[in-house]
Amino acid sequence: MTSDQAGVLWPFITGPGLPPTGAVIGIDQQSGGCFYADPGGWVLDDAIGVTNPNVFVFGKPGRGKSATIKALATRLMPFGYRTLIAGDPKDEYEPLCAELGVEPITVGHGLSARINPLALGPLGQGWADLPAAEARRRVAVVFARWLTLIRGLVGSQRIGEARVPFGPVDEVVVKTALAYLTGHRQGNTVLVETTIPQLWRLLDEPIDELVTECRYATTRQFLDETRLLRDALGQLVSGALAGLFDGPTTIDIDWNAPIQSLSLSRLEALGDEAVGIALTCLNSWSRGMRELAAPGDLRVVVRDESWKQLRLGPEAVKSFDADLRLSRRDGDVQVAVAHKPSDLLTAGDAGSQAVAIAKDLLHLADTHILHGQDPAVADDLHRLLGLSPIEQDLVTSWAMQGKGRALWCVGDQRYKVLTILHEKERRLFQTNERWLDSPARP
């Protein structure tokens, strides 16, 4: 048979590999040569067929996901990338931060760290000197980010089994209230930073101008028709957000450091929903901090346990979707981590809007790293990722026989890769290594 026919029956016959640029990850098991990962560079190479730098990493616990991500992040650092861990639920990145001389920022009840997800960010700087057109552009960007966040937070609350809706009327009310709180509506030359509790208080005790501008006949009508919105925000202020994301930001991040990590391990005992809400706030805040990133300021943004945010409902999924869509503009490599592709389907009921949006998230990442999975996941690998039977078998058989083995799907190309770690990296990267030091081991 001819070479173009052979690929149908033997799809893993070695073909042209990826260019040797970026981070050396390990061994390409087909060619026997080194495998290089360069998500940003792949976007610029038309021959590779990658249109965005985002990466989804899937794998059963203990199959080497974290080690591969840490290897990718640290080995891209010599090429100008810095790393931001936008929420570390289990302090997995703490040893790496310590090795690089950076103290992780811990968020939790009783701690001093506060992060305001409604911070203006860099776009709020130098407001008085901005031309009118640039000021309008920045207002549109900042308010869009805030509305996406508020929509996600309100939609995370429940009425029985249903999520609290956030419709066009709620959007007008929130946007108008934010305009008054920041001074934008009054034409201030300097915008005032506001917080979620301040937003809730203004909606709970609305000024006459707010009622009129939102086209309500009376204050009573305003309060009656915004009750769900106000109650949802009130639950966040007094519940999961209390003392964490409800005041001015108190941390000072060194964006020139090689790595920054926002630890959420103190929230783990509060449950997946509280962690998901915290991740939503951190993701929105970190996106705001990157809105004026200088050219060449490249960053690997790791979104660990991303499924916890997606389970907060369709609005939280939309917020995550927005983060992925903006990565190419901001010079970020967004790395989202989950156990298996079907985790995205837990965003809502079968056939729901949340599930439809979550499935589309897979198309916002042209690189998928598939570590070992149980055979029961094989159908999902075909249905959601289009893997052939041979490729499914690699993930459910070969990749399960050793840590660090993964099928790398780069555009429409497939690579059977073994991540290779130095002994020092093994101690820093492997989350299971702590068991080796346990006194309970024989």
Structurally, the number of domains stands at 2
CATH superfamily of the largest domain: P-loop containing nucleotide triphosphate hydrolases
Structural class: alpha/beta
**Main β-sheet, in a few words?**
11 strands, mixed
What is the level 1 CATH name of the largest domain? Alpha Beta
Description:
The structure is a single chain. The chain is built from 18 helices and 13 strands. The protein is α/β, with parallel strands linked by helices and 442 residues long. Helix 16 crosses helix 17. The termini are far apart. The C terminus is likely disordered.
Could you give a short description of this structure?
By secondary structure, the chain is α/β, with parallel strands linked by helices. It has 18 helices and 13 strands. The protein is globular.
List the main descriptive attributes of the protein structure presented here.
two-stranded antiparallel sheet, 442 residues, alpha/beta, disordered C terminus, Rossmann fold, 11-stranded mixed β-sheet
Task: Please write out the topology.
Blueprint: H1 3-9, E1 23-28, E2 34-37, H2 39-44, E3 55-58, H3 65-76, E4 81-88, H4 94-99, E5 105-106, H5 132-155, E6 158-159, E7 162-163, H6 168-182, H7 196-204, H8 208-213, H9 219-225, H10 227-238, E8 259-263, H11 272-289, E9 298-303, H12 306-310, H13 314-325, H14 327-330, E10 332-338, H15 353-361, E11 367-371, H16 378-385, H17 389-396, E12 405-410, E13 413-419, H18 423-429
Parallel strand pairs: 3-10, 3-11, 4-8, 4-9, 5-8, 9-10
Antiparallel strand pairs: 1-2, 1-13, 6-7, 11-12, 12-13
